[in-house]
Amino acid sequence: xxxxxxxxxxxxxxxxxxxxxxxxxxxxxxxxxxxxxxxxxxxxxxxxxxxxxxxxxxxxxxxxxxxxxxxxxxxxxxxxxxxxxxxxxxxxxxxxxxxxxxxxxxxxxxxxxxxxxxxxxxxxxxxxxxxxxxxxxxxxxxxxxxxxxxxxxxxxxxxxxxxxxxxxxxxxxxxxxxxxxxxxxxxxxxxxxxxxxxxxxxxxxxxxxxxxxxxxxxxxxxxxxxxxxxxxxxxxxxxxxxxxxxxxxxxxxxxxxxxxxxxxxxxxxxxxxxxxxxxxxxxxxxxxxxxxxxxxxxxxxxxx
Length: 304
Known about the structure:
- The chain is mostly helical.
- Helix content is about 50%, strand content about 10%.
- The strands form two sheets. A three-stranded antiparallel β-sheet has the order 1-2-3.
């Protein structure tokens, strides 16, 4: 059985005395952190370049650490600055981050346009190599982003500085081939959409001319390619109007589906190949015993 031990008054006194013993003071940084909320700590961390998620904040312009790191990108000669941006662009390209790569290659080309210093006269050949490579990579990044006109422009600009550059020439041919194929696809899509629009307009006119009203539904049945259409030419007003038709046998929970019932055809013509029905063992449905009626516009019935 567990025992309950009553503590003496001396024990309580010793405990109270122990809690009153002064503890060492915390360092200033740890002491200030105790009075800081989690949100304030997170906001302070985001001011550090290593934890930043955006450069568009108002505080980013006053961030000394960020300004120092950005300044490092522009230290050195024109060729060194451009080469740094180019290498950053190559890293982005290897990661398939084409948008970021495009920005770095653009910065590399911009750095080469800055006026040259007196001690950079011997770097002309290196700058030319970086410029050609940056034009090629920029064009490749734009092409991967499906921005073909901009990619073509960048490639042609690179060739204006180096007309015989094999990489740029190969890329130019690839961009032009892709652009031609894309133009052909867009033309076919435009023609297909234009024809579909004309067919829909012609079908609507044909239905109105015949005073046939239709309804739409948000849950259309699955009918594969069956639809109301004009045949043989959907754009000819002299074509025959055809309808998908369902024959229901409600007493037997059966049905037949006719994909194309022409306006010049008769119900008897279709019943001749449908009857006798394979499941109608009692022969309740025959040509002789079938009567058909059609509903009129005013709601009446006429015998077919």
